[in-house]
Design goal:
Elements (H helix, E strand, L loop, with lengths): L1 E4 L36 E2 L6 H13 L46 E2 L18 H21 L6 E4 L19 H9 L12 H12 L4 H9 L3 H5 L6 H11 L8 E7 L2 E7 L2 H9 L13 E4 L7 E3 L6 H13 L4 E9 L2 E2 L7 E9 L4 H4 L8 E6 L10 H20 L2 H7 L1 E4 L5 E12 L31 H9 L5 H10 L18 H4 L4 H21 L1 H8 L23 H8 L2 H4 L12 H17 L4 E2 H17 L1 H5 L9 H5 L3 H8 L7 H17 L6 H26 L19 E4 L6 E5 H6 L6 H12 L10 H8 L8 E5 L1 E6 L11 E8 L2 E3 L2 E3 L2 E2 L1 E5 L10 E10 L6 H4 L10 E6 L14 E4 L2 E2 L2 E2 L1 E5 L3 E4 L1 E4 L14 H4 L2 E5 L4 H7 L1
Parallel strand pairs: 1-5, 9-14
Antiparallel strand pairs: 2-3, 4-7, 5-6, 6-12, 7-8, 8-15, 9-11, 10-11, 11-12, 13-14, 16-19, 17-18, 18-25, 19-20, 20-23, 21-22, 24-25, 24-31, 25-26, 26-30, 27-33, 28-29, 32-33
């Protein structure tokens, strides 16, 4: 065991040129925002306004130290900006000489809307035809943007201009041996793929014991049963013997943990960590990732003219491209390995207040779809940091400083090898055996910049200005901060003053001080889980409870109709305690719809409240897009603007007196961070939160709770060895073949899916009378007769009017009295991107009858769905909402009696009761479409449609009015209510389609 002092040796400083920061502009509190209001018409322009252009250009300038060689060089003035002509050699030119100078400037803007009317006015603009036209134009423009972001028009890939970047090394004597082949060479057994286990059954038992089994004691007790080991043919008799095989005979897949001590104020603390270079090699060389790795940056566009850029995986962001340029100046031809670090303390027990502080590592070369799935092993546990609160230090200020310095000392010890390897490079083999000179560079980090509490960890905006969306902001100058840290040599007082002058804590050698090409203020990335769900959404729910009343909100929650995506909170949402991020996400799916028409105190108009909530929810959903374009990033900014333009409603309600919330201010940085590092699912802590279970909580449960971290690391090492051997066994059994390389493409926002019906019906024989009584298909006979009459005409192109069809339907006689019925249709994911993802259910529509369960009558469930009625899948006019009552098939013997042989009848059909068509534009305040039952002569309009035409489920929120009728229930509200709002927040695709 090694002792390391709290103050570690200084690393060489990297000084950047300093500049005097511009003066702050303090705006009066609650002054109405001066920026233009949300657009009603979308127009392509170069710069939204001069204030934002200057603000964002300054932020771009401070984002990189090397100002004469970074993505976005431009030395002209603002009036000279114009779009360059397209060139056939665009891939070889530095596009950023113009285009990316607008790094944070929108490429099109929204025209300012008409000034808002006074609160005394009704704000009822839906009767104004001109306002309707504006909303419809806006909606059409948004749908075009969403279509381009979803990849409907394809994309254009522009590679990095220097072909040496990411190229494999061609060293003499170098032979490419795949990772699995190298692993097998250590085992030295070509005949038995399971070696060192004697047989498949022995390997399966060992794998079960370490990955799925009970405790070691329970496993030993199982094997001690007389005859169990002998009948299974096991070479080990208990858990200890199995552990010896794993420890001594299985090759090491990932590096072992080291244990060192940190001394603070005379007390020592253990830190368990791994060699970070070996961890990077393990991830980079994993055979499962070999075909998916990215080695060089790229630019992706939606069009051949390269005017609309896409951002998704990390290699499509500007950071990788810019850093590759900087690296090429130092050592050309290197392969960047972006290092993504996250740390977060977590409780490992429920009652004993025992915690762990895991530190996770992943690399940006692995596609984000793989990294964000814990089961794929794209993250590695790098260290367990000390969790001490240093309670032996009595002075609180001294204790806080000591805790911060302890943290940075441990982080510095773990990350120290990156300093040399990042600059000079190190040869690494990927899983396919290809050798490259790799440069592991610190890219992204969550938390811990050393900024004082309450200040923004990225920019220089003052605490009192964080509520504004217009105050200029500039990234903190890393050069000035490094100069302040260097003042430590001048004495403690000079050091403290220098740190205070640049707005940081007096940290002794923070871990990021000596990392090459690192800018910690740029590298702190957005955190959707903690900043949005557990931050802004938590605040928003408290504000709405104060504004609308807990009783009324809970009453509306209890009366929502069921849907696959909606969790029904039977007791409401205001009484929940310790609400998780998942629960906040579930609440957001219906939050906007339940506050429409609700009464506010003092009879204040609810229009601004709806627009404020809508702005935050739109920002939340847009921020989580798996693929962004320069256009959708403008929508992201407009959503945030919409909240700020209407936030004063909470002040007038007496709920807030300011909005100086750091997490609200952090939303201003999302645009920049997505352009730099790709979409937020590259670095969201929501994915590493799941790792706490596998790598901290489960590990702790496997110990005897004494000297637990030594046991936790040993348990984890054995588990990782089993997982690595599992990959080798699968490779051997598959014949040792390597898959073809994979080429990255933007994620499809439609999330490839396939419709699935059960092989056999849920009810084999249901009478037509029960379809009407139990399933609610009141007009089933008439609708089916009309369907048969229409289909019986075969390929006759002449359409029939309604009356003529009714005449033909009267002559239809059913050769059956019962039908086979299906109670559910579902949509399952497909592995559209070739990542080997498992199939999961993404959506479903239920059509279940009412049933008698004992003395209790269970209500029927008839879900609402989006049905395709036209040929254009991009136009809302070709879709209708319907309530699916029955899904069925014809008895095979009846088909030739009803239809001519030339008719190709769909296998599965559905009886659907229609709602009105979509209006030209959604509601101006809520942004939701208003629908009602489609009636003819006072009767519900119903049809028979192919189940294949059901696109997906939709959720309708009842129009509750001022007070929700208490006689309505979740089971019957679709029949009780006559007007609904189409909920566009149930999932990401529905949001992109209807917003």
């Amino acid at each position: 065991m090694t002792r390391i002092p709290i103050v570690i040796p200084r690393y060489p400083k990297t000084r950047a040129s300093t500049s005097t920061p511009p003066s702050k502009h303090n705006l009066p509190a609650y002054r109405k925002e001066s920026r233009p209001t949300l657009s009603r018409t979308l127009q392509p322009v170069a710069i939204k306004n001069k204030q934002r252009a200057l603000n964002e250009a300054n932020e771009a300038e401070l984002a990189f130290d090397d100002t004469d060689f970074f993505e976005g060089d431009y030395n002209g003035n603002e009036d000279e900006l114009e779009r360059p002509a397209a060139s056939e050699h665009a891939a070889d030119s530095d596009e950023d000489d113009f285009d990316d100078h607008l790094l944070f400037e929108p490429e099109w803007e929204a025209a300012p809307s008409q000034p808002q009317a006074d609160e005394d006015n009704d704000l009822d603009l839906l009767d104004d035809a001109f306002a309707d036209d504006e909303l419809e134009d806006q909606q059409n423009a948004r749908q075009d943007i969403e279509a381009r972001a979803r990849g409907h028009s394809g994309f254009v890939r522009v590679p990095y201009p220097d072909p040496r970047a990411g190229r494999r090394s061609m060293s003499h004597g170098s032979v490419d041996h795949g990772a699995n082949a190298a692993y097998g060479a250590h085992l030295a057994n070509d005949e038995n793929p399971y070696h060192p286990f004697n047989s498949q059954i022995e390997w399966e038992v060992a794998r079960w014991a370490k990955l799925r089994g009970a405790t070691s004691t329970a496993f030993s007790d199982l094997l001690s049963i007389d005859g169990v080991s002998e009948r299974l043919g096991l070479s080990f008799k208990n858990a200890n013997e199995l552990n010896k095989i794993i420890d001594h005979e299985l090759p090491t897949g990932r590096p072992k943990f080291k244990r060192e001590q940190v001394v603070v104020a005379g007390e020592s603390f253990d830190v368990y960590y791994r060699d970070i270079i070996e961890c990077i090699k393990s991830l980079y060389g994993d055979p499962d990732f070999a075909r998916y790795l990215t080695f060089a940056p790229e630019r992706h566009y939606t069009d051949e003219d390269q005017t609309i850029r896409l951002f998704h995986d990390m290699h499509t962001g500007k950071w990788w491209w810019n850093t590759q340029k900087k690296l090429d100046q130092h050592r050309p031809g290197g392969t960047i390995i972006p290092i993504i670090i996250s740390t977060d303390k977590t409780q490992v027990t429920m009652f004993r207040n025992k915690s762990a502080y895991p530190m996770y590592l992943t690399i940006g070369n692995i596609p984000k779809e793989i990294r964000r799935k814990p089961s794929r092993g794209g993250h590695i546990l790098l260290a367990y940091l000390p969790t001490t609160r240093l309670e032996h230090i009595t002075n609180k200020a001294s204790r806080r400083r000591s805790i911060a310095n302890l943290y940075h000392a441990c982080m510095s010890r773990v990350l120290a090898p990156l300093q040399h390897a990042g600059l000079e490079g190190i040869n690494m083999r990927s899983g396919d055996g290809a050798l490259r000179r790799c440069h592991p560079l610190f890219a992204s980090f969550l938390l811990a910049t050393g900024i004082k509490f309450g200040d923004c960890p990225k920019c220089d905006v003052e605490k009192d200005d964080t509520e504004s969306n217009t105050v200029p902001l500039h990234l903190r100058n890393i050069g000035e901060v490094l100069d302040a840290l260097a003042a430590l040599d001048q004495g403690n007082l000079a050091f403290v003053r220098a740190c205070a002058a640049v707005g940081i804590k007096p940290l002794i050698h923070p871990f990021w001080e000596g990392l090459p090409f690192a800018n910690i203020f740029q590298g702190v990335t957005p955190d959707v889980l903690h900043q949005l769900y557990q931050g802004l959404v938590k605040h928003l729910l408290a504000w709405l409870e104060a504004a609308c009343g807990a009783t009324e909100i809970d009453a509306r929650c209890r009366r929502l109709p069921p849907n696959h995506h909606i969790r029904l909170f039977a007791k409401g949402i205001t009484t929940l305690s310790r609400v998780s991020g998942t629960e906040h996400a579930q609440i957001c799916r219906f939050l906007l719809g339940i506050i429409i028409d609700i009464r506010l105190p003092n009879n204040l108009n609810a229009g601004r409240l709806l627009r404020a909530v809508r702005g935050l929810l739109d920002f939340l959903y847009l921020a989580q897009y798996p693929c962004h374009s320069t256009e959708t990033l403008q929508l992201l900014d407009e959503a945030l603007d919409l909240f700020h333009e209407n936030k004063l409603i909470f002040v007038e309600l007496g709920i807030r007196n300011n909005f100086n919330l750091p997490k609200l201010h952090a939303a201003r940085h999302y645009h920049l961070m997505i352009m730099l590092f790709g979409s937020t699912d590259n670095y969201n802590t929501e994915y590493t939160e799941r790792l706490h279970i596998d790598l901290a909580k489960d590990a702790y449960r496997a110990t005897n709770h004494k000297d637990e971290f030594a046991q936790m690391t040993r348990w984890l090492e054995r588990k990782e060895k089993i997982l690595r051997h599992q990959k080798y066994v699968s490779w051997r059994l598959a014949g040792g073949h390597q898959a073809d390389p994979y080429h990255s493409r933007p994620p499809d926002m439609t999330f490839g899916r396939e419709q699935v019906m059960t092989k056999h019906p849920s009810a084999k024989s249901v009478s037509l009378e029960k379809l009407a009584t139990d399933y609610g298909a009141t007009h089933f006979r008439d609708a089916l007769a009309r369907f048969i009459a229409q289909q019986s005409r075969g390929n006759d192109p002449a359409p029939l009017d309604s009356q003529a069809l009714d005449v033909l339907a009267r002559d239809i006689h059913f050769p059956f009295h019962r039908l086979p019925v299906f109670h559910k249709v579902k949509w399952c994911s497909v592995d559209a991107r070739g990542h080997g993802d498992a199939h999961v259910t993404l959506d479903s529509v239920h059509a279940k009858p009412q049933r008698n369960v004992g003395a209790h009558l269970t209500a029927r469930r008839s879900d609402t769905a989006l049905v395709r009625v036209g040929m254009n899948a991009k136009d809302l006019r070709d879709f209708r909402v319907g309530q699916v009552r029955v899904m069925f098939t014809f008895p095979p013997k009846s088909i030739p009696l009803l239809f001519p042989p030339t008719v190709h009848l769909p296998t599965h059909l559905a009886y659907v009761e229609w709602f009105t068509p979509f209006p030209p534009a959604p509601d101006r305040n809520s942004g939701l479409y208003k629908l009602s039952r489609s009636l003819r002569g006072g009767e519900t309009v119903a049809s028979i449609v192919p189940v294949a035409d059901i696109e997906r489920s939709v959720h309708l929120i009842p129009r509750f009015g001022v007070i929700a009728p208490r006689e309505w229930t979740s089971d019957t509200v679709l029949e009780d209510c006559d007007t609904f709002w189409l909920n566009s927040y149930i999932d990401r695709y529905t949001f992109s389609m209807f917003r």
